[in-house]
Write a structure and sequence with these properties.
By secondary structure, this protein is α+β, with helices and mostly antiparallel strands. About 35% of the residues lie in helices and about 20% in strands. Strands 1-7-6-5-4 form a 5-stranded antiparallel sheet, with helices on one face. The N and C termini lie far apart (about 55 Å).
Length: about 210
């Protein structure tokens, strides 16, 4: 109700309402005539935000232990089944990625953007790889998709309720299109990784250990 009264307190808004009450169906130009504004640009000039993947989970651990689990290669190897990233985790350093337990760490162009121990970790994400060509109808569509760059950010903070431990938010963003194949492919993968991370840090048994 406060928002309603605030809106009605504005003289221009009251005049707009009066004009609509006098004659409904007026054009925007007719409504705003003489009010010092030719069009309402705010909505028209606000660009559509790019799609993003956001996932929040709560883990009963400490912020430092969670950050260590995101950056320590020996810990990553456990809950990611021998796969995952490797880096010195200094800003600007490469983040190499191992895509299979028997594979090698590959340089895919990922770089550390932010690294604040216990609080925040962010790095650029690699582009689509040749293996993903089959997902596209043409070479042209694949070539266009190869231009896309994205970013992964882990935000670590105390949970709103102490008994829940630590709040971890992962944001994978800067995708160009809602139809992004990278967005489609990574969202499910992140959920599985974070589920395994939570199980590992809370002392549960991973499927591979059972």
């Amino acid at each position: 109700m406060d928002a309603v009264f605030k809106a009605l307190a504005d003289a221009s808004r009251r005049r707009l309402l009066d004009r609509l009450n006098e004659r409904n169906g007026q054009t925007l130009l007719e409504l705003t005539e003489g009010l010092g504004m030719s069009r309402k640009h705010s909505l028209e000039e606000t660009p559509m935000s790019k799609p993003e993947f956001v996932y929040v989970t709560y883990i009963q651990t400490t912020q430092d232990k969670l950050y260590q689990a995101l950056t320590d290669p020996e810990l990553i190897k456990v809950y990611m089944g021998g796969m995952g990233p490797e880096s010195t985790w200094e800003v600007g350093s490469p983040v190499r990625w191992k895509s299979s337990p028997d594979g090698e760490f590959e340089e895919l162009g990922q770089r550390v953007l932010e690294a604040e121990p216990g609080k925040r970790l962010s790095y650029s994400w690699h582009t689509l790889q040749p293996m993903h060509r089959r997902l596209f109808d043409s070479d042209e569509a694949f070539a266009e998709a190869l231009k896309e760059r994205s970013r992964v950010t882990f935000e670590i903070e105390p949970a709103e309720v102490a008994m829940l431990g630590v709040k971890l938010t992962i944001i994978h963003d800067l995708f160009d299109s809602p139809d992004s194949k990278m967005l489609e492919g990574t969202s499910g993968g992140w959920i599985m990784i974070l589920s395994a991370l939570k199980t590992f840090l809370e002392g549960g048994k991973l499927v591979a250990d059972q």
